[in-house]
Amino acid sequence: MDKMPKWADVVLIPVISLILAAVLSALVILAIGENPVEAVKLMVTGALGSTYGWGYTLYYATNFMFTGLAVAVAFHARMFNIGGEGQAMLGGLGVAIVCLYVDWPHWTIALLAACAASMLFGAAWAAIPAYLQAKRGSHIVITTIMFNFIAAAFLNYMLVNVMRPEGSMDPATARFSETVHLPTLHELLAPIGINFSKAAPANVSLLVAIAACFVIWALIWRTRLGYEIRAYGHSETGAVYAGISPVRITIVAMLISGALAGLMAINNVMGEAERLVLNSTEGAGFIGIAVALMGRSHPFGVFLAAILFGFLYQGGAELALWTSIPRELIVVIQALVILFTGALDNMVRMPLEKLFLSMRRGAQ
Amino acid sequence: MDVFVTIIQILDSTIRLATPLLLACLAGLYSERAGIFDIGLEGKMLMSAFFSAAVAALSGSVWLGLLAGIASSLALSGLHGLASITFRGNQLISGVAINFLAAGMTVLVAQDWFQQGGRTPSLVGGGRFESVEFPMAIGPKDAELTGRSVSDLMSDANVLHLVYSELISGHSILVYIAFLMVPATWWILFRTRFGLRLRAVGENPAAVDTAGVSVVGLRYAAVAICGVLCGIAGAYLATALQAGFVKDMTAGRGFIALAALIFAKWRPWHAMWACLLFGLLQAIALRFQNIDLGGVVIPVQAMDALPYILTVVILAGFVGKAIPPRAGGEPYVKER
Lengths: 364, 336
Prior knowledge:
A: mainly alpha; B: mainly alpha; 14 helices
């Protein structure tokens, strides 16, 4: 029998964890001599008060949806894919190759090709740690951490020594051609009479991200593979008894996870920068961890958490602009969210379980 | 002679660069041998780097800085212990949270205290660890007496004297502490009752519990030792290797230390050699940009990536097998 009703597990615990993280963040803001209420007001107007703010919020949210889904899929198979950052970097490389070296007649075809390339590259970067975990028993967390650093060095090499246009000092590729330009929300919404900010980077990738949420939901809860992944995640011995191959599930789940992380590149590389630069991922791979934890590894939860983190990111940038609070405040908030929704989960859960048990006893 | 001097200088910087790795690696060794995975070494070092530099800058005393650094690193260790021992949470997630907490808090506090864009003022005089001059070694004092530069004196010295002056003498006190910690760790882990229990709690905590020894107590002790060593490592970075704190100054050293720990298969002496190897790679990458080996050019990025690649190869079990402590990463639930 469950100790708590399902709604408490799905809604109450994340909300309490979030409140704890928010209270501590407010204390941090107080401690550095700023007013938390003013800070929140600034963040809300900066991130949600204009279509420009929304455009940035949704742009960041798009990144976090992809990386959050990536971590969530791995979580379902009880694996911790900490390598989303490296997989997203490699995805960027795939997008850059597709956009630079092929002449595309139209952006729709280019987008399809870029999706395929980024997923392929991301999945390939996850494949080696997945194989090592499945066949050689090396811990996926350690190997994916190592692969993040290897990816950074590899990308650095590619940008500095191979892909940099001649005569340029900047370690970045040339700009992509105009035909692979992805329509921004401004261009998408103008025909239906909505005037969305022209300067904001949110683009058609947002729709791809939302579609990915649906696809992953269907995959995890409506297909045989998803069932096998969840079964394996709940009990390895049980899954083996049911004829599920641990090697296959480990590798397939990591390939999906890597592909999702790689797919992020259509947003930040193709949609925003329109060229591949060093550190184009800006830590989004790691934020995926916080997003997946807060979203309870459910695609809809990931969707909501990604928008929340998009808001925090854009709001944090506005704070850094108008007050003396540096952008790193967001990193602290992110750490607190990971801490409370992930590592200190039992601290919130244990007292609540006791409370619900005593309430049930009282009712009988 | 020139080549020889260059080699000696690279080895000298190897020792300097290996020291923070070694301290963090031994820190991880205690924690992981007791069954607590710690991917938050990086964060603890960073936190200590900031607080040691900040307190040293404010008080002018590097020793107070060291204490502050250790205290801040211990606080994060306490958090890790709380999450992973008391509340039996996921140790890896806790480590990730600690890394982010340190990355954010250091810049936030640095900006609030010093308003220098997330760095501390440069440390001078008593705010830094001075290098220790051994007797008979060539150092700045000889240079002053003779009126010639140190490098000039070095090139005149004979081989033994050169090695003694460059490699053995002239490091900060923390370097010697780090290398002395290697035999000390070996002795504690393999020759004392505490060490036996610490290793047992990482392999089979239930057996330790049956013997009437506190699993929780031992694990907290291990996590605390880890905190102290990470604290020294961070303080070394900010007050000895460099003069002050800059944002993200650990630059992945905590993860290289983790790699070295796996490379060493959780053994102290091997940890030292692994850290020296990775320190050597850093020293070479720092000195040469691209290495030309008769037509084949090794790019500097390959040197950067090599520690991680080596670790993956070791983890894959192609060169010996790295088997972690058996109860590592598992919270201990006492049966009722």
